[in-house]
Amino acid sequence: LQGTEAFYSILMAHPKANGFLGASGFAGAIPAAYTQLAKLFFETLQKGRQSKRITKFEYQRPSWTFHAKGLWYYQPYQSLPLLTMIGSPNFGKCQYFDT
């Protein structure tokens, strides 16, 4: 956190957009665990006076879930990324219909 002056935007699932919301057993605790980890991370940013460089966004859309992992590196003052890495993408979409 202290070794760079880069700006970051983090997109994560809102707890209501987490596919494990309402799951039974251990899996049901995953949304709360992610929320707690994000809270601790941003408390660390504030203590280190780094919160102006790193912005968090939460995805939430009724009846949708969010799952993505990726990294996009932009050089300073450039509008397009120099490097993109994607893992565990969901390139397809899944729709559930009530009948």
Automatic annotation (TrEMBL):
Its EC number is 2.7.8.5. One of its GO terms (biological process) is cardiolipin biosynthetic process. The keyword RNA-binding does not apply. It comes from the Eukaryota. The chain crosses the membrane at residues 20-42. Pathway: Phospholipid metabolism; phosphatidylglycerol biosynthesis; phosphatidylglycerol from CDP-diacylglycerol: step 1/2. It is found in: Mitochondrion. The keyword Transferase applies. It catalyses: a CDP-1,2-diacyl-sn-glycerol + sn-glycerol 3-phosphate = a 1,2-diacyl-sn-glycero-3-phospho-(1'-sn-glycero-3'-phosphate) + CMP + H(+). InterPro entries: PGS1. Keywords: ATP-binding, Lipid biosynthesis, Lipid metabolism, Membrane, Mitochondrion, Nucleotide-binding, Phospholipid biosynthesis, Phospholipid metabolism, Repeat, Transferase, Transmembrane, Transmembrane helix. One of its GO terms (cellular component) is mitochondrion. GO terms for molecular function: ATP binding; CDP-diacylglycerol-glycerol-3-phosphate 3-phosphatidyltransferase activity. Belongs to the CDP-alcohol phosphatidyltransferase class-II family. Functions in the biosynthesis of the anionic phospholipids phosphatidylglycerol and cardiolipin. This is CDP-diacylglycerol--glycerol-3-phosphate 3-phosphatidyltransferase.
